[in-house]
UniProtKB/TrEMBL annotation:
One of its GO terms (molecular function) is ATP hydrolysis activity. It comes from Streptosporangium saharense. InterPro entries: HATPase_C_sf, MORC_ATPase. SUPFAM superfamilies: ATPase domain of HSP90 chaperone/DNA topoisomerase II/histidine kinase. This is ATP-binding protein.
């Protein structure tokens, strides 16, 4: 039997088209080469083709990349389309390493790659190409052994690329016969696909953009997007300026300046692995972005790309992001909504590739073994610190804005009407009503409230049989109850976990328009509410057990509690 090739080139390349690249990740492979070649400007043009008929959808039919780097000599250009070839093969001081990324990325979306390059501004453009359809046809005709890339030849660049062609040295790469970017396949339309690419690329190459390199997509220069909110003059800064100068920001009543656009650095910690070091950076998003509790999914949050940051870690290799993803259980607990305001970055050099699970294409990434354990230990500590700071900040904002004033007013007023038939309270205390309501007014309105504001507040609540207010006070107590002249004053602690994880999310949802509530948000809140209510009863039962004779001590309390709850719930409905 005759010797056969170990690879059927055309069919193998056809199979490798399903490499799983996102469009931005695929485009990033070409940008890598441009930056390695010293390009200061990388221009990208995504060309949309109209639908061929009413039954077909429009699509991106061609993507063009241009850079003003050093260009490729004829030897390098000849091998540029050869899978496995790289002038930086297996090096540990460059972005590229394996020699497969840019080729597989192109084939993931299109069937043809054309490349022009030159190393001398006065020299003609040298040209090579590869066409997968031609390769498959040759293979079917039994000419598979001849599949390859012809030697470079001098060839003028077509005039429809004049607007993007560098004037001096550089390279032009064209992906054509693009057949996997129809509208609705990867995005609802051309603009959505372009915007998604802009968003991802501005984050992946943020260090280069921040340092002055220029990357354009369809004539638009990208601003760096820093998921740590540490860089100046980023996409986020632009959105925040617009929001606080001309948008909804001023209505929030927060004292925000541009000094509040930069994140608070929680930690920058070296992580030693063998003879090499990775660096973990954790930040708490700036006050301008965290604003007040409950705004993590509004229009500004979406523009700042905050929801997608929930639990995400940015892995940076040689100042280039190779993954932005959730790593299961890396926090030592489940990911919660407030985690979206915490920026996390792990930066490393190629010597640590094996520990980070770096593959021959820059995706499908997860830290391994010793490194994973060290990151989990550090993140458990630093993320807790960030969460504590966030809760403290939100508490300060709520107090400053008096956000919770009157939160329970409708219910307490309805309960007051319903309480007319309840037994008369028997509590006797030495607390003077005027002092109790003065203290309550300060807790609710703040220490800077004027006397008239406090007097107005007291007048509104002093005749109610029940007053319930959400206030910020230290300690692990969930509620504080005062009995004053036959009336009950209840303070709920906004710092308590029960309030933060159950009460407040339900309160926020109750105030939202039904069209603005996502099924996921509602489902998550109700599940947590069921957990919290059950745990509330368990905690109460356990608290009773701390007395030697809970039955004797608390039986009457439980009887009254159940009776009053049944009566009030039967009378107070639909007041919110």
């Amino acid at each position: 039997m005759t010797r056969i090739p170990v690879v059927l080139t055309g069919q193998a390349l056809q199979s490798l088209r399903d490499s799983g690249y996102s469009l931005a990740a695929a485009m990033g492979e070409v940008i890598d080469n441009s930056l390695e070649a010293g390009a200061n400007n990388v221009l990208i043009r995504m060309d949309e083709a109209p639908a061929a008929s009413r039954s077909k959808k429009s699509h991106i039919h061609r993507i063009v990349f241009s850079d003003d780097g050093s260009g490729m000599d004829t030897h390098t250009l000849h091998h540029y389309l050869q899978i496995g070839y790289s002038t930086r093969y297996m090096r540990t001081d460059t972005i590229g390493k394996y020699g497969v990324g840019a080729k597989l990325a192109a084939l993931n979306f299109g069937k043809r790659i054309d490349v022009w390059s030159r190393t001398d501004a006065d020299a003609p453009w040298q040209y090579v190409y590869f066409d997968l359809d031609e390769a498959l046809a040759e293979e079917q005709e039994g000419k598979g052994s001849s599949i390859g890339v012809d030697a470079p030849e001098a060839k003028p660049v077509p005039s429809d690329f004049d607007d993007i062609l560098p004037k001096g040295t550089g390279t032009l790469v064209v992906w054509s016969k693009v057949d996997r970017l129809e509208e609705g396949r990867r995005a609802k339309d051309f603009n959505s696909l372009r915007l998604e690419a802009e968003k991802e690329i501005s984050r992946i190459f943020r260090v280069f953009l921040n340092d002055g390199r220029n990357i354009e997509i369809n004539g638009k220069s990208l601003l760096a997007h820093d998921p740590l909110f540490l860089m100046p003059d980023t996409w986020a800064d632009q959105q925040l300026r617009e929001y606080y100068r001309t948008g909804e920001g001023p209505r929030l009543g927060l004292k925000i300046t541009e000094a509040n656009y930069e994140a608070e650095e929680i930690a920058r910690e070296p992580v030693k692995i063998g003879d090499h070091t990775a660096y973990l950076t954790v930040t708490l998003y700036p006050k301008a972005a965290t604003r007040k509790r409950g705004l993590g999914g509004d229009e500004l949050a979406k523009k700042l790309r905050i929801p997608e940051n929930e639990g995400s870690i940015s892995f940076m290799r040689m100042d280039r992001e190779i993954s932005y993803t959730n790593v299961p259980m890396i926090f030592g607990r489940r990911v919660d909504d407030p985690d979206r305001f915490i920026g996390i970055e792990v930066s490393f050099t190629p010597e640590l590739d094996s520990y980070f699970g770096v593959r021959n294409v820059k995706r499908g990434f997860e830290p391994h073994d010793e490194l994973r354990d060290k990151l989990r230990t550090a993140l458990k500590r630093h993320v807790k610190t960030a969460r504590d700071r966030l809760e403290e900040r939100w508490g300060d904002v709520a107090k400053e804005r008096r956000d919770h004033v009157g939160d329970h007013r409708e219910i307490t007023q309805a309960a007051a009407e319903a309480a007319r038939t309840l037994p008369t309270p028997q509590a006797k205390t030495d607390i003077k009503p005027e002092e109790a309501y003065e203290e309550l007014a300060i807790d609710v309105l703040g220490t800077d409230a004027d006397e008239q504001a406090k007097a107005n507040y007291t007048a509104q609540v002093k005749d109610l049989p029940f007053v319930v207010e959400s206030v910020n006070f230290p300690g692990k107590q969930f509620m504080d109850v005062q009995h004053v002249g036959g009336k009950v004053i209840i303070r709920l602690n906004t710092r308590h976990r029960f309030y933060k994880e159950m009460w407040e999310p339900l309160s926020e949802i109750s105030k939202m328009n039904t069209t603005a509530i996502s099924p996921e948000q509602a489902s998550k809140a109700t599940r947590r509410a069921m957990e919290a209510l059950t745990l509330l009863l368990i905690a109460y039962g356990r608290a009773e057990s701390m007395h030697e004779d809970p039955h004797e001590q608390y039986e009457q309390l439980r009887d009254y509690w159940g009776m009053f709850l049944d009566s009030l719930m039967s009378k107070v409905k639909d007041v919110l």
